[in-house]
Amino acid sequence: MGTLTPLRPGTVTLVAGGPGDPGLMTVAGRAAVEQADVLLVDHLAPQGALAWARPDAEVLDVAKLPRGRTTPQERINELLVTHARAGRRVVRLKGGDGFVFGRGMEEVLACAEAGVPTRVLPGVSSAVAVPALAGIPVTHRGIVHGFSVVSGHVPPGHPTCTLDYAALAATGTTLVVLMGVANLSCIAAELLAHGLSPETPAAVIARGGHPDQVVRTACLARIADVAAGLAPPAVTVIGDVARFAVPTPATELVEETR
What we know:
By secondary structure, the protein is of the alpha/beta class. Helices cover about 25% and strands about 20% of the residues. It is built from seven helices and ten strands. It has helices at about 25-35, 75-85, 105-115, 125-135, 165-170, 185-195, 225, and strands spanning about 10-15, 40, 60, 90-95, 120, 145-150, 175-180, 200-205, 215-220, 235-240. A five-stranded parallel beta sheet has the order 3-2-4-1-5, sandwiched between helices. Helix 5 (about 165-170) links the parallel strand 6 and strand 7. The longest helix is centred in the first third of the chain and has 13 residues, at about 75-85. The chain is elongated, with a radius of gyration of 19 Å.
């Protein structure tokens, strides 16, 4: 089945919205939004993409706001199944790529259990797109041959944290941290404790892909201080490639990597 095949009634389509700018969505993703009877939309999904929806389409806000209003995942699963069983063409519009810390597979499994056909339209993950929008390649010939993407939504040492920071510090790859701005001080301290150089370049990109994108750079030892005050969504890049970042805006808090 081609990705541009028209949506069928009674189905769910998971659409990855990319890092923020609706122009960075896929052609197939836009086509799905245009055909949807019902759209379940995250707060990180590109809001400009909703202009493509039909005037009679129902748009449901199912945001999960950090430390704010949250729609339980179970409720989202229930809405997907209920609307699809009612014969509607349902689109689940997420930010980034729903299969990278996006709980997209949970929704696929919930629909499968209910007998609801699903289709996944992958998109641009913020893990690589947001650094690129700040001028940072996550790999670069002669500098680094790989990158590791991790979630920083819980700090090192938290009972639910499964990351081996000693191993991450020793990989020799670029480290990309999603959802980690609130725990950046703890994450940086843990990497330093496991031997990563304090002078390692680092960058934090907040609201990547939006008109008010902000990039702040510093060495690893200073990045948490330099990024203080930035709110999610933000992506942190740690490694030599972060020196390519183009910092904005030019304020006293922006410190070029030494």
